[in-house]
Amino acid sequence: MGGDGVDAWKRVQVAAGGALFYLPEDPAEQTNLANRYPEKAKELHRLLKVELNGVAMSDAANSAGGAIKH
Question: Which one, 6, 10, 47, 65, has the greatest CB density within 10 A?
Fold first, then answer.
């Protein structure tokens, strides 16, 4: 990937409270709203962890021929 733009990945430090952006008004993710809405940030972080765990379990089940149940 060449320069910055669509599909360009950047590694950034995330504050201890997480990162929360309102993309319709802030598509460049310039204003972190996690401190303003800490409960929403925590809720979304928990949901993300659950989803990522499900994806990891699905990958493990697929690698094991479906032998792992979750």
Answer: 47
